[in-house]
Hints:
Largest sheet: 7 strands, mixed
Number of helices: 5
Shape: globular
Amino acid sequence: xxxxxxxxxxxxxxxxxxxxxxxxxxxxxxxxxxxxxxxxxxxxxxxxxxxxxxxxxxxxxxxxxxxxxxxxxxxxxxxxxxxxxxxxxxxxxxxxxxxxxxxxxxxxxxxxxxxxxxxxxxxxxxxxxxxxxxxxxxxxxxxxxxxxxxxxxxxxxxxxxxxxxxxxxxxxxxxxxxxxxxxxxxxxxxxxxxxxxxxxxxxxxxxxxxxxxxxxxxxx
Length: 220
């Protein structure tokens, strides 16, 4: 395959339709959003809490980078979901390719297909970072991973996610923005959550977007 220059750091190597990272070889299928945000996803993944013995759910798994990393980093069980069926097929192929067995991957609109009896220590989402008008309608599956109309997805994650947390569990929010806002903090207060910033990386000449990783717990 022809080598592609991407400017990626962190020891990531890439070829057409293949990424090598976290000691894994990952396929990239057509119709799966990943390229523009890949380094942000990797940075957020590297700053997640320790996974040893944890029950981990990832919303919006994409090609499966974070979920597979969690499964290989000591998580007892991993569930990964995506609204895009192309992403589900891609993540399953990558799990098989890298012999990752302690993971269940399926299609779901946030929590719609996750059993209501299930509980997780960590529920993570690198949420769509572009705030769109409230009436915005996605034009294709990839748009679903980019735009959040009037932050409705963020509110759903905050509100519905609380009922899937185990005792002492946390929501983990990856927030990637070209124009930093206080939406994550303001809406957390509205939804009855205590929010703590775990890590951040500010925009620069080489990095046009701000990355933030938050931990959220229900107020007691």
